[in-house]
């Protein structure tokens, strides 16, 4: 009994050992070894099996064994490791037979195609280029790890668009010749919006004031256009820097900020941002000193220091001083000058002693200026804008001006200027100007609308850089309900080596009355001539011109009396050489959307022979930035015309007009001043006075978008005198018309757009007023 009890467990143990041995043998047989054990031998030959695309020579290059070597198990292991490391193979096996080494490989498939399903947010080309940056693309070896990296990269692209609910599924399809096609099935989901932004720890400034500094906002009625309610890590980092600069500019030198906490709701639709700050206390500047090598220019450098003792510390003024000193030294040839502000805090008194350490380094020459990237534009066209001379002292101001002048040409999409030390020289640098050319030719088709001119159609063809020569050729056609104009012009900005420009132009224009301007007549004008521009500084230019004009007037029974008097005095056809001269100065930072600078223009036009008249004009615009987002703009315009050596009235076809957008808003376009006593036609006048003041501010919710702005304005103006002989040509400021209102300006794809709600403040009997006005194709 006991023996049987002992024997039974022993039998079970033997059975378990047998089963275990069976499974071990099965595993060994089912999973072939990578390198079978063998006795070292002298290699007679090496053979590679299984390759389809890979060249045999590529495999042999990674096999550290040659015919005649003694082959060992360690060598087999090395071969396997080396071939796996190439990434070309998914399996490598080593076998031996008759002193022959056989390397059997299984190649990884090649990616034949990459496709996307359900992707609407991005172009396929854009994502494929991003994939290539992580090593995943058509023609590359397929690797699961790279596929996962590509999925991650695509997900990151969607996260940058605030689409946190995106789902991406990648599938691979085997293709003939050991290839695969990869498809990414994308469920984009909806955009997650910023639900709340909280700032905690602020005491000196309200949360609202700090939120106004940020580009990111919560959802509002305009965020569909601005996208400022879409979370972006880059924008948030920029907003953090804006808040930090805000505090430093107000003396909070110990201001600190924790990493913002960004959370998302469970449904991935709402984002919450919490910003924790520590303000500290504001510091007052107790002393400002200059130290280091001042090059005996103490007074000149001290004049550049904008931050003074007794003021609240300002990080902006400190940086402004450092930049001004570096720029000043750069203008003197010290290209590598360093200026480092060093604040020393007195926490008990809440004061800071500020020292600017000046190190001018060495003065250097410019050996040469190298221009690259101008494949179409001639080298002389770009080089004539360079103000830094070769073999001369380095001049930082001249280099900056050179970059600005190249950008203003309009030939280049990007201008990058760098300086590099000359190898082996301690006092020479090379200036490298790299440009990226843009298309300069264009066919323009446009449509606009104005309440004065009705539908405005325009078409034209232009080339600003003809054959890379820097000359400009334009042909344009403009039509409205009152006028049709055809213009052909050619401009050579460097007619002479000194920068004298020459414009040759011809035009044909017809003017007929509109429904808003009754009276039946037609004026046909054709002319052409030359205009020359002479630069007298980087911002000033003098112009001289000579043009010839032929005018033909057709009258009818119901024509205006003023035009009949014109024909009586001058005839229905005139030939007039016109002389012109002018001066202009333009320091604006933009022509279409200026925020700082000014524009001044003085001009004189004198008609001779048939029409002996002159017109003097003066205009000044000034733009004053107020803070970062606001601009105060002023405009003043004055015209004065008369005849000379003649008893005839001022020619009515040379009258100027006012009323509407561009002069005095709130009044119908071109409606101010005298009217014809017979037909009531708006005649304009020989004198004009216009004044405007306008305050621009951003549209709430639009962030820093300068293409869309609101403004409030006040206008004043009037037109005096006419060739009809029925009104005084005396300028009476008591007769000015005034208006005020508000509006919106938008740099639309069709051109500048203004929408205005205006109120005429002192309209008189007979004045034509308009409360709502708009115009496409004009700007303030």
Description:
The protein folds into seven domains: 1-30; 41-107, membrane protein fhac (Ubiquitin-like (UB roll), Roll), CATH 3.10.20.310; 115-187, Ubiquitin-like (UB roll) (Roll); 193-278, membrane protein fhac (Ubiquitin-like (UB roll), Roll), CATH 3.10.20.310; 284-359, Roll (Ubiquitin-like (UB roll)), CATH 3.10.20; 365-437, membrane protein fhac (Ubiquitin-like (UB roll), Roll), CATH 3.10.20; 441-776, Porin (Beta Barrel), CATH 2.40.160. By secondary structure, it is α+β, with helices and mostly antiparallel strands. The radius of gyration is 39 Å and the shape is extended. The chain has 13 helices and 35 strands. 19% of the residues lie in helices and 41% in strands. The strands form seven sheets. A 16-stranded antiparallel beta sheet has the order 20-21-22-23-24-25-26-27-28-29-30-31-32-33-34-35. Strands 9, 10, 11 and 12 form a four-stranded mixed beta sheet that branches. Strand 18 (412-421) and strand 19 form a beta hairpin. It starts with a helix and ends with a strand. The longest helix is centred in the first third of the chain and has 29 residues, at 2-30.
- The span between the termini is 117 Å
Compute the CA-based radius of gyration.
Answer: 39 Å
CATH architecture call of the largest domain: Beta Barrel
The percentage of residues in β strands lies in 35-45%
Number of separate structural domains = 7
Structural class: alpha+beta
Multimeric organization? single chain
Total strand count, please?
35
Protein name: Outer membrane protein assembly factor BamA
Pfam family, one: POTRA
Keywords: Cell outer membrane, Membrane, Repeat, Signal, Transmembrane, Transmembrane beta strand
Subunit structure: Part of the Bam complex.
């Amino acid at each position: 009994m006991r023996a049987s009890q002992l024997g039974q467990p022993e039998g079970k143990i033997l059975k378990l050992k047998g089963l275990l041995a069976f499974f071990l043998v099965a595993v060994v047989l089912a999973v072939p070894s990578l390198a079978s054990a063998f006795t070292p031998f002298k290699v007679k030959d090496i053979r590679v099996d299984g390759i389809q695309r890979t060249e045999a020579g590529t495999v042999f290059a990674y096999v550290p064994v040659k015919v005649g070597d003694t082959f060992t198990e360690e060598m087999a292991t090395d071969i396997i490791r080396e071939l796996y490391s190439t990434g070309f193979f998914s399996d490598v096996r080593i076998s031996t037979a008759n002193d022959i080494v056989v390397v059997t490989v299984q190649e990884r498939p090649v990616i034949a195609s990459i496709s996307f399903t359900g992707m609407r947010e991005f172009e396929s080309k854009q994502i494929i280029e991003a994939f290539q940056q992580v090593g995943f693309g058509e023609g590359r070896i397929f690797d699961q790890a790279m596929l996962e990296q590509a999925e991650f990269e695509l997900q990151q692209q969607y996260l940058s668009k605030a689409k946190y609910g995106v789902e991406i599924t990648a599938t691979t399809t085997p293709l003939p010749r050991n290839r695969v096609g990869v498809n990414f099935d994308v469920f984009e989901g909806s955009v997650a919006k910023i639900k709340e932004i909280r700032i905690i720890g602020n005491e000196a400034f309200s949360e609202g004031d700090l939120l106004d500094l940020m580009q990111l906002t919560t959802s509002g009625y305009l965020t569909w256009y601005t996208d400022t309610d879409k979370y972006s890590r880059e924008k948030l980092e920029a907003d953090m820097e804006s808040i930090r600069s805000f505090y430093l500019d107000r003396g909070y030198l110990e201001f600190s900020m924790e990493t913002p906490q960004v959370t998302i709701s469970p449904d991935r639709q709402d984002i919450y941002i919490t910003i924790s700050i520590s303000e500290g206390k504001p510091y007052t500047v107790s002393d400002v000193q200059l130290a280091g090598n001042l090059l005996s220019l103490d007074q000149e450098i001290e004049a550049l220091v904008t931050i003074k003792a007794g003021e609240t510390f300002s990080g902006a003024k400190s940086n402004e001083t450092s930049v001004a000193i570096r720029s000043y030294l750069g203008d003197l040839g010290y290209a590598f000058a360093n200026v480092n502000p060093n604040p020393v805090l007195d926490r008990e008194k809440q004061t800071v002693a500020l020292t600017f350490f000046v190190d001018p380094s060495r003065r250097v020459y410019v050996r040469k200026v190298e221009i690259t990237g101008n494949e179409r534009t001639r080298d002389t066209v770009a080089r004539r804008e360079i103000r830094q001379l070769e073999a001369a002292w380095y001049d930082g101001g001249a280099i900056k001006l050179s970059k600005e002048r190249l950008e203003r040409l309009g030939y280049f999409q990007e201008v990058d200027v760098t300086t590099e030390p000359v190898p082996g020289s301690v006092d020479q640098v090379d200036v490298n100007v790299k440009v990226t050319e843009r298309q300069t030719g264009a066919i323009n088709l446009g449509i606009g609308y104005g309440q004065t001119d009705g539908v405005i159609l325009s078409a034209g063809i232009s080339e600003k850089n003809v054959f890379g020569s820097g000359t400009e050729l334009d042909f344009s056609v403009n039509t409205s309900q009152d006028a049709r104009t055809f213009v052909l012009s050619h401009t050579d900005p460097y007619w002479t080596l000194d920068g004298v420009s020459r414009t040759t132009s011809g035009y044909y224009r017809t003017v007929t009355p509109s429904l808003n301007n009754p009276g039946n007549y037609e004026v046909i004008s054709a002319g052409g001539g030359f205009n020359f521009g002479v630069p007298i500084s980087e911002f000033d230019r003098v112009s001289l011109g000579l043009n010839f004009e032929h005018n033909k007037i057709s009258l009818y029974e119901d024509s205006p009396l003023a035009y009949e008097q014109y024909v009586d005095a001058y005839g229905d056809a005139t030939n007039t050489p016109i002389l012109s001269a002018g001066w202009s100065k333009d320091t604006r930072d933009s022509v279409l959307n200026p925020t700082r600078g000014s524009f001044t223009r003085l001009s004189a036009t004198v008609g001779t022979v048939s029409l002996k008249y002159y017109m003097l004009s003066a205009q000044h615009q000034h733009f004053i930035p107020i803070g970062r987002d606001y601009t105060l703009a002023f405009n003043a315009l004055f015209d004065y015309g008369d005849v000379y050596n003649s008893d005839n009235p001022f020619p009515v076809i040379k009258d100027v007009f006012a009323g509407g957008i561009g002069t005095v808003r709130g009044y119908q376009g071109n409606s101010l001043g005298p009217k014809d006593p017979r037909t009531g036609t708006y005649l304009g006048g020989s004198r004009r006075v216009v004044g405007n003041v306008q305050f621009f501010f951003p549209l709430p919710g639009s962030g820093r978008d300068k293409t869309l702005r609101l403004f409030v304005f006040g206008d004043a103006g009037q037109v005096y005198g006419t060739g009809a002989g029925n009104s005084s040509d005396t300028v009476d400021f008591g007769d000015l018309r005034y208006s005020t209102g508000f509006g919106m300006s938008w740099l639309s794809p069709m051109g500048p757009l203004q929408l205005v709600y205006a109120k005429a403040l002192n309209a008189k009997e007979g004045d034509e007023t308009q409360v709502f006005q708009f115009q496409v194709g004009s700007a303030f």
